[in-house]
Design brief:
Layout lengths: L3 E4 L8 H9 L3 H9 L8 E4 L11 H31 L19
Antiparallel strand pairs: 1-2
Helix pairs in contact: 1-2
Length: 109
Amino acid sequence: MHSVWTLTGGDAVTPADDLVAALESSDPDAALAALVGRDVDSEDWRTVHPRTGGPGPASVAELRRIRRELERANDGLTELRFHLASALYAGKPLGARRVVDPDTGAPLA
């Protein structure tokens, strides 16, 4: 699962003096890049889902739980696929070889 790490609150703010010093340095591009890429040790770091912007996992334990649930769901889908394939091949239950549109019930080719 991909998450975006965000920092909010006071730790996310860059002091104006640091920005001015970076802009007035001999290499402002490198100085600003260093400011943007700096490591900030803070309790305010949070993960955010990249598409929805909703909260992401808050701990490694939560990530492990999510991974277990995804693996269990994947295993269930794989098992279901084999059950459906067997049923279509054997024609059980009756009519399983006939494929119909789920919305209209009309037979499909």
